[in-house]
Amino acid sequence: MPKNKQPRLSRRQFLGAGSAGLAGIAGLLGLRSATPQPALAQDEDSHVDAHAGAGAVGSVNYEANGFNPHEILTDFDYGEVSQEDGRTIRTWNMVAVDLEFEIAPGLYFPGWVYGSSTSAASKRAGHIAGQCPGPTLRCVEGELLRVNFTNASSHPHTIHFHGIHSAFMDGIPGVGRGNIMPGESFTYEFEARPFGCHLYHCHALPLKRHIHKGLYGAFIVDPDPENYRGEEKEIAKTRNHQYPENADYNEMVMVMNGFDTNFDGDNEVYAANSIAFAYMKEPIQITGDKRQRLYLINMTEFDPINSLHIHANFFDYYDHGTTLKPTLTTIDTIMQCQAQRGIVEFSFAGFEPGRYMFHAHQSEFAELGWMSFFELVDANG
Ligand SMILES: [Cu+2]
Questions:
Q1: Which residue has the higher pLDDT, 143 or 27?
Q2: How far is the CA of 226 from the centre of ligand 1 (A)?
Q3: What does 140-158 look like in DSSP terms, one character per residue?
Q4: What is the residue extent of each domain of the chain?
Q5: Ligand 1 centre distance from Cα of residue 203 (Å)
Q6: pLDDT tens for residues 153-210?
Q7: Which CATH number is 62-247's, of 2.60.40.420, 3.40.50.720, 3.90.1150.10, 3.30.230.10?
Q8: Ligand 1 mean position to 79 CA, how many Å?
Q9: Contact, 316 vs 294, CB < 8 A?
Q10: CA–CA gap between residue 310 and residue 313 (Å, rounded)
Q11: How confident is the model at residue 9 (pLDDT cuts 50, 70, 90)?
């Protein structure tokens, strides 16, 4: 659907509109038929087919998008590693591009997104492919990071990293290099610290428009076990992708996001990793022999908070991922303000195999796309 062809309606009007062009949204609300029903969402208490199970009708063409939320889930982009004067340098080649992509069956979003030459999507494509969320950049604390950024988009952009670094490398307008104009390049260089589950995003103005368009991604700094002692050292090994202990964990990344498809400052679609109901239609397969570690980041614009709730289980939580011991233990729901993030750890060892739901516990977000399943395929192995 070309942009600007969508009616300018409020979210409530949008849901109740019943326009044939909005079949994707009808699907989002759980209708078995792609034909929108006018009664739908006119009254939130009206008994539509939502009880029959939400999910989008039809499927999103991941190939046309150029990225796949199942691939993004576990695609850690380690960049290119080299040594200089005994120090590890980690380099990424990144771009910002304009990219229209499908967020729910038949529903397209005119995005601005990042891509990296070392992402799985780019390796498949044979060129730097844009994706939403951007590539999950992963490194180890203490390394020197170089991010060669080229703005191949039609608007000024930056990359602002959450981390500890100089003002010059902060990626905001008017400080240091400031905005990177279309066609220009700049190399951000800084040390990887502190360890944790962080993020990066464009900081050009207007900020909420630049972020909401899709210019954000996960930035994970693994702890270096050599910096810790005793029990903390052992935990740090499990968090560091270079250590065999890390293989005891099934690691995943979810960036919670929303899409304002009619540009009224209100989201119409919500998701983890951009595609509504992606992990509901194709549940994430897990086994009981590994512990689950989920890097969870909230990049939802316009709504002040988002959340995660996992069914039939409880988890430990590491706020910002900057500690080696959980900051919250035995919880089943966590809320995150915008840009807040953390590490969620849990296990389904010994559970009955089957589908275990997880979703935002804002019911509205869940029904508009942010609803998913883990499928425990083997409780023990
Ligand atoms: Cu921007």
A1: 143
A2: 37
A3: ETTPEEEEEEEE-SSS-B-
A4: 7-53, 62-247
A5: 6
A6: 999 999 999 999 999 999 999 999 999 999 999 999 999 999 999 999 999 999 988 9
A7: 2.60.40.420
A8: 22
A9: no
A10: 6
A11: very low
